[in-house]
Design a protein that fits this description.
By secondary structure, this protein is an alpha+beta fold. The chain is built from 2 helices and 3 strands. The relative contact order is 0.06.
């Protein structure tokens, strides 16, 4: 078990696909390998189609974030009402101070 913990761990970043080699004992990155570069499309028509598709994906992400923001307000309001109801049901008690303990 001790030999396995000394072996470096290879991790791939989910965001940029970079490869990291991490030493678990030190908790430090030993080696960083940048992600592979995307080759630009050689065909101009393919590049235009890719840009058109990107606009649609960007619009879809924007709509998803707008819906999430609308639901966020309802969620926060519901949480507030629940906590307010709980606070009304609990009796009001004075907090214990250090001077009260003497």
């Amino acid at each position: 078990m001790h030999d396995a913990s000394k072996c470096p761990i290879e991790v791939i970043c989910p965001c940029c696909q970079a490869r990291l080699t991490v030493d678990p004992e030190l908790g430090a990155v030993l080696h960083h390998e940048p992600p592979p570069k995307e080759t630009p499309p050689t065909d101009l028509k393919a590049a235009v189609e890719e840009l058109k598709g990107e606009a649609g994906r960007r619009e879809a992400r924007f709509k998803e974030s707008m819906e999430a923001e609308k639901e966020k307000g309802k969620l926060l309001e519901r949480k507030f009402k629940e906590l307010l109801k709980k606070a009304k049901d609990e009796p009001v008690a004075r907090p214990t101070r250090d001077i009260d303990l003497d």
